Amino acid sequence: VIRMSDLDLNEKRVLIREDLNVPIKNGVVTSDARLKAALPTIELALRKGGKVMVMSHLGRPEEGVFDAESSMQPVADYLAKALNAPVRLVAEYLNGVEVARGEVVVFENVRFNKGEGKNNDELAQQLAALCDVFVMDAFGTAHRAQASTHGVAKYAPIACAGPLLTAELDALAAALKNPKRPLVAIVGGSKVSTKLTVLESLSGIVDQLIVGGGIANTFIAANGHNVGKSLCENDLIPEAQRLIAQAKARGGNIPVPTDVVTGTAFSADTVATLKTVDAITSDDMVFDIGPDSIAALTAILKHAGTIVWNGPVGVFEFDQFAAGTKALAEAIADSDAFSIAGGGDTLAAIDKYGVAERISYISTGGGAFLEFLEGKTLPAVAILEERAQNSVK
Ligand code: 3PG
């Protein structure tokens, strides 16, 4: 791809697509990780003398109507404070917008535009006409082929990748394409079904695939144990057995918890009981891994060359079931491995245990991070590669 850092942006109209889709409560941004990650790109475009426009989606509003709930105003307010530059939110921009050098124009939510989700050609051309250089920097939305991520890149005079997007892709490539081994992945979360392709793809490349959360329950059941009333997908037990066999066949391993912490209801005050997996009763719900499992998994992480982390291994929002996720977060932080983490719940755990500084790379992607792990091509990156190839021909 062409990189923004290599381009002359002086006096150029520069349209940057960021993923500024952040949680907002009462008009205030409640988690600014994505905004912080986007700032260096915007600042670099300003330093390079560009006339800078920034666009993003926020939430999933209905297209074609304005919805105050999904307005970019709180994001624009945040940027105005964070950037040492005047920031202006513009609602009507499709027919052209004046931008002065040194200021930042933020477009209102791109998902208010009819045709954004379906990657409408006319809308993409309108966006492309606004700029001399289109910068795709929204890694978190790179798995969406939409007018502001994909279509615009088709038609803009120049389409390039911003520094955040390339940093994300470089970090993921370092972890998965040519990793220092042993390569260990942790895939937690509630359901096997939503992560089946990730598990499938990772079990083909990693040395150890640690499963956690509800996902682990299906694997515990696959090993022949009763999991009581736990979240468990019985129809996927054969799939779990196949993954275990497949990993073993290539010299890898899927370690399954041997002891667990159970409760009897999904609630903050349910009593936690430690059990071995063969002692789980019909009334039990598995909410965390036990100390033996923690010890086994932290030993694996200690010797890892590379760690990929997506998803908690227990219900860490309830303190009595947080020990597993906390211990793993700390083991990742303590390890000398190159570590990369991504996904909403994972970031919440990283914040809660204060280990952000000691993880090599924290991705801004949720769905996009998972699709990369699945081995899928991200359409908004593919179009940049296509454009770059055509420009050298
Ligand atoms: C995300 O939060 O994963 C991205 O911003 C994409 O949002 P979407 O799932 O609504 O397309």
TrEMBL record:
Residues spanning the signal sequence: none
Binding site for ATP: 195, 317, 343-346
Any one GO molecular function term: kinase activity
Keywords: ATP-binding, Cytoplasm, Glycolysis, Kinase, Nucleotide-binding, Transferase
Residue positions binding substrate: 19-21, 34, 57-60, 111, 144
One of the Pfam families matching this protein, by short name: PGK
Catalytic activity as recorded in UniProt: (2R)-3-phosphoglycerate + ATP = (2R)-3-phospho-glyceroyl phosphate + ADP
EC number(s) given by UniProt: 2.7.2.3
Highest taxon listed in the record's lineage: Bacteria
Subunit and partners: Monomer.
Family: Belongs to the phosphoglycerate kinase family.
Protein name from the UniProt record: Phosphoglycerate kinase
Organism this protein belongs to: Alishewanella tabrizica
